[in-house]
Amino acid sequence: MNITLHVWRQKNRNAEGAFVTYQARDISPDMSFLEMLDVVNEGLILKGEEPIAFDHDCREGICGQCGVVVNGSPHGPRKATTTCQLHMRSFKDGDELTLEPWRANAFPVIKDLIVDRGAFDRIIAVGGFITAPTGNAPDGNAILVPKLAADRSMDAAACIGCGACVAACPNGSAMLFVAAKITHLGYLPQGQPERDRRALAMVARMDEEGFGTCTNHGECEAACPKEIPIEFIARMNRDFLKAALFTPAERAAASDGG
Amino acid sequence: MSSSAPAVAAVQSPAAESRLARILGSSIGQKLVMAVTGVILSGFIVGHMVGNLTVFKGAEAINAYGVALRKFPALLWAVRFGLLLSVGLHIWAYLALSFKSWGARPQGYKVAAYKEASFASRTMRWTGPILGAFVIFHILHFTTGTITPGFAFKEGDVFHNLVAGLSYAPVAAFYIVAMACLALHVFHGVWSLFQSLGISQPRYESTARRVATLFTIAVVGGFVIIPIAVLAGILKLQ
Ligand code: HEM
Ligand code: FES
Predict the structure, then answer these.
(1) How far is B174 from chain A (nearest CA, A)?
(2) What is the ipTM of this complex?
(3) DSSP assignment, residue A93?
(4) Chain A within 8 Å of B204 (Cβ-Cβ)?
(5) What is the CATH number of the domain that holds A187?
């Protein structure tokens, strides 16, 4: 199959970018989307041109590194699929695809289709952890976790931090990501001691990073390759509001033992 | 994920802030303001709609309702002040949240593809200001009698003002359009406020969705039937 690509090319953070059109020829429908880009890049390298820069690592849908907006859809048209797990059989011969990087003030473009998602790391760094003693691993069943809580926690923990929620949100909001991280720890007994402080700190950091604010469009949920539901945003709101209204300053600060 | 080092040290502890600052200074707190004032305004429109319906019981009934509202001036002004405060806070939160979102994507996409966003959710930032403009016009039209296109305002004669005012077709049309905006606004807004208040609800087939849908049909239906009844000649001056 032959595909026409309109790809966002941008030399570096400060350069002006522009769309450049490429032809991807003789593409097998069994190729993954990133393999198709590999083929295009080989052609560019042979011609002595700069290959298209895109992020990827595992190519198994688990690391969260890849991510391209294909015709307006982060990770492309397939539901619950990362860009690396998308296959060319999802497209038709002769299709025209516009490839853009995640667009968000908090995710500056580094090069072409690669953005800097350091804002997510900084949100995690202020609260996306539990404080546990080091030493021998604790006995597996020492802390019992109710089945439902374990399941919901795992649903949230499926988040791979790819940033598609931000890319998809008309408001550029990161609330689905932050909600997933807060929910993943908040459902478990181990996450309780720091629950209030976590919600306050992570939400504050999210705001400082310059993400937009949720208006419940639901685009994030639809784009999420791990199908994180927006109910988790309501849960984050609940955790945050409870902490903001009822946690005295001393207690919220006292558990700051990271 | 990143090339720049986490700047943890730069983060000032949000724990140290007062409760009010934590709420008003954060996006989720501002959504709470939006939701709580949205609940108050939604409660008000239910009462207002039910009061309006007395027009179908005739001139005496609605004029008596008008008099009853003014029986306790202190109470009336307390309610008016509360509503004004709610509208003010609702608009403040609207501006604070919208500016953040407008700044969050300086460069947009060349191709946009919506999957879930509804017409109602995408027009919230339009239907809101239109409702604000409508409310101002509505007060100048029927409460103060300052703007009276196509009719003569009679102080205290609610029935006359309502029927005569809405007999003028362009004004009736504006009322109907404003109610369409109200329908869109509360259809998304009432569902949305469950999320904002932290009550988890799926987008479809949930209690919140049903509450929002029924609320919209009942309240907007109750309002819009009046200009339609006037235009259809069902409500007319005796
Ligand atoms: C009759 C008057 C009004 C009623 C009954 C009303 C009701 C509501 C409700 C229930 C919400 C949901 C709150 C939430 O998301 O948590 C809401 C949100 C909102 N309102 Fe209003 N509102 C009114 C007037 C206005 C006005 C005058 C403006 C703007 C100038 C406005 C702008 C907005 C915006 C932008 C949102 C947020 C949309 C979103 O989160 O998706 N509203 N409103
Ligand atoms: S490359 Fe790891 S998730 Fe796509």
Answers:
(1) 27
(2) 0.91
(3) T
(4) no
(5) 1.10.1060.10
